[in-house]
Amino acid sequence: MLRSATKKMMPLMCMLASTVLGANEADSGLFALELDDLLELTVTSGSNRAEQFRHTPASIQVITEQDIKQRGYTSFSEVIADLSGFDLNTSYGVDHSLFYQRGYRTPSNQRTLVMVNGVINNQLWGHDFSANRQTPLTMIERIEVLSGPAGAVYGPNAFLGVINIITKKGKALEQDGHKVSAQAQLADFGSKALDLNLLGKAGRWSYWLGIKQFKSDGPGVDDFARWDFVDEQYLSDPRFWGPVLNYGHDGVPYGQYVSKDDESGVFGEVSFDTLTLGVNNWITHNGYGLQFAFDRGQPNARWSRRTSSYYLRHETPLFDKGTLKHFIRYRSEQRYGDWAEASPDPLSTKSRNSYVTISDWNSTSSSWKVRQDYEYQYNSEVHLAAGLKYERKELTSAYEICGYFASAYCTFEDPADLGPYGLGKGVYYSTDPDMQVIRYQLKDMPDENLVTTTDKGVYFRASYKQADWSLSGAIRWDNNSVYGTFIKPRVALTYDINATNTVKAIYATAFQEPAPVQLYGGWNGRNANPELAPEEVKDLTLIWMNQSGAWFSDLSVYYSRYNNVIKEEANNAGERDVLGAEWRLRYEAENPWFDAPQISAYMNYTYTKTTSHINFDHQLGVWVGDGTPACEDDAAACGHYRVDLGDIAPHKLNLGLNLPLSTRLSINTRLNYVSEKSLYLRNPLRQQGTKLGDYLVTNLSLVWQQDALSVHLKVKNLFDSQVYHAGSEQGSSGNQFRDENGDLLRSQGFYSSIFPQVGRNWELGVTVVF
Fold first, then answer.
1. CA angle in degrees (0–180, nearest 5) for 230-233-237
2. If you ran DSSP here, which 8-state letter would residue 594 be given?
3. CB atoms within 10 A of CB 29
4. Residue 337 domain boundaries
């Protein structure tokens, strides 16, 4: 298979090589970064200003451009998989990968802010970020990952941490001109991508542009580890699906496992002196992958998320030692798609018959945001900053869903038309010979279904620095027109014990806004709750950093207390405690085996213990414990719980080794170990005592570079390990697959309890710089 793929890539490689013959010599960056360079690196995400990596008052890790090249990263989720402090679950669907930072399980990627040069890319309606393949990695100079709440610095929703993608800039070019990086990728499962980065400078003008286009047929059923709900028999059983099987998507009939991906992104800026116009636009089209049990949801569909963001920045001097920064942004977004569903009829024999629908879904939202920031270097010891923010959002209220159950909102359906079974115009039965289907009609959202909210924010930040220690603090006031006012402080102390040891102590707070999709966007399968209160967190983190010769160590321990936890059912329920530790090591040494640059290695170890103050009673089918609706009348009878939340591995270990074989060729090996873990409290398998076993995945990248041309060959899951990830949302499908006669049984719920992972797969990439 690898040999045939290489043959397919040969014409492309030849074409790119011919381009290189007339190109300027590329930067020799594959082996360029040394440990001292990393420690002297300037980062901006700790306090939202430039600081030395070692002295930034935060727990922060940095992935550099050289790391991306050496390891052959081509997607955002690959980067996340090798970081400390993250649990990663891959569904191969709408959310290709779900990541939980610092042991906090969430319904989606909602509680970590993902930014590009400080511009937030989480969506307005769901507060989530699609960790799919739409982000161009050739545009990245470094990725700064801040662990822990940062509400006093970044405002609402910097709840678990911040991921800030810092891009290359045209203004950084040494002389006027242009530079282009183009990477073509060909991979398993019919995957192909083009990743472009363009930089330019001409006098006072400069620009940068990143473009990514990714398409894939996705893995097939036989590519996954064995799991009985991943079986096309469930998709094609007429007892479950009936007239749905008369239809399909994109020329492929329902009843087959197909889950395709089509994703793209355009990011860029044009600058004139200190005036910058920027764009962050991306769109993802995905099938549903393994997200839903196959007897309830057809993967062969398209669910889309679109974000269009345009902004203007300007900086002007303020007195002799200050800067005034202006920022204005408009963004609009949409999430939409179609969905084929089979809801078991409990009155039929073993619930094998279904009420079936093929429906259209849509939501649109937009906002205007204005921000003004002031920075002032009072003297060599004192730095001051303050700022104002105002944002007006226009959000979808009810999910617009047509062809569905009667409780759903649809602009062009008569609410009095309850269909053939009195359940809704689009609801049919699996014994019906056919059904009426109208799709792809939803576009603009009517004004009657929009909600307007406003956000206001004010912050003040100060730092005081002496020769071997610094003290920094921030406080932020935020007001939302729906849920009110919050004040969040942050304090950090940094102390250099000596030239090789630094310690930090950080107390930080933040709050997470209820996502509008949970406030307003309910449907018959999930109630909305306009009474949701924001979540809050208080966190104490202690850090010890040490550099000793070829070694660099970064150890942090933390304790976090979360209040008003919002679960997937859209209600506030109880508290969570997280106790954790992250230990990051980096090592560099002279190459003892080859006449080549130094070898480098890293280790990231994570320990996490997440405790929930409520439990799920599988007999009653309700959450019980302090603060839950089931216990409001008789809290004493419910008791007090301190139970393992589940889906969070207690131990995770990431190991990596980069071994140059020559000045042009290197081998990079990365191992990811995840320990055994309990499943989520709501998951039916938790009641059975089922746990996900530990696993080890090995990834290998072979990277070759010659002047402006580089090629990487990457093999993921090298030893073809059988790997399973935990399911998302309720994880409610269970594992009752067949009855005593071997006949198919229905799942216990819509969301898959377990995501089987693909085995060994490959990728070939060719990059040219000119």
1. 130
2. S
3. 15
4. 2-769
Domain of residue 645, CATH code = 2.40.170.20
Question: How many CB atoms are located within 10 Å of the residue 661 CB?
Answer: 15
Report in angstroms the alpha-carbon separations of 577 from 101, 209, 612, 616, 682. 14, 42, 7, 17, 18
Q: What is the rounded CA–CA span in Å between residue 757 and residue 693?
A: 13
Tokens found for residue 560? 């976090």
Q: Rg for the chain (alpha carbons), in Å? A: 26
Chain centre distance of CA 403:
31
Kind plus residue range of the DSSP H or E element containing 179? strand 177-187
C-alpha triplet 490, 491, 493: angle, nearest 5°: 150
Cα separation values, 626 from 33, 278, 566, 631, Å: 52, 47, 14, 7
Number of domains in the chain: 1
Pair of tokens at residue 256: 């087959």
Using an 8 Å Cβ cutoff, are 340 and 301 in contact? yes
Partnered with residue 33 across adjacent β-strands are none
Check: CB of residue 671 under 8 Å from CB of residue 679.
no
Q: What are the tokens at 444? A: 């603009």
- Mean pLDDT per 10-residue section of the chain, whose length is 770 residues: 38 37 39 57 78 85 92 93 95 92 90 94 92 94 94 91 95 94 95 96 96 96 91 95 95 94 97 96 96 95 94 91 94 94 94 95 95 93 95 94 90 89 94 90 87 95 93 95 93 93 95 91 77 94 91 95 89 90 93 86 97 90 76 63 92 96 93 96 93 96 92 96 94 91 91 95 92
CA dihedral angle for residue 762, residue 763, residue 764, residue 770, rounded to 10 degrees: -160
Asked if 494 and 502 touch (Cβ cutoff 8 Å), the reply is yes
- Which H/E stretch holds residue 21? helix 2-21
> What's the token pair of residue 689?
């005592």
Say how far apart CA 483 and CA 566 lie, in whole Å. 14
* H/E element, 488: strand 484-496
Question: Tokens at residue 703, please?
Answer: 């990277």
Could you give the 3-state DSSP secondary structure of residue 724?
A: strand
The residues, ordered by sequence, that sit 6+ positions from 416 with a Cβ below 8 Å of its Cβ are none
Q: Residue 548 in 3-state DSSP?
A: strand
**763 near 187, Cβ under 8 Å?**
yes
Predicted TM-score of the model (pTM): 0.92
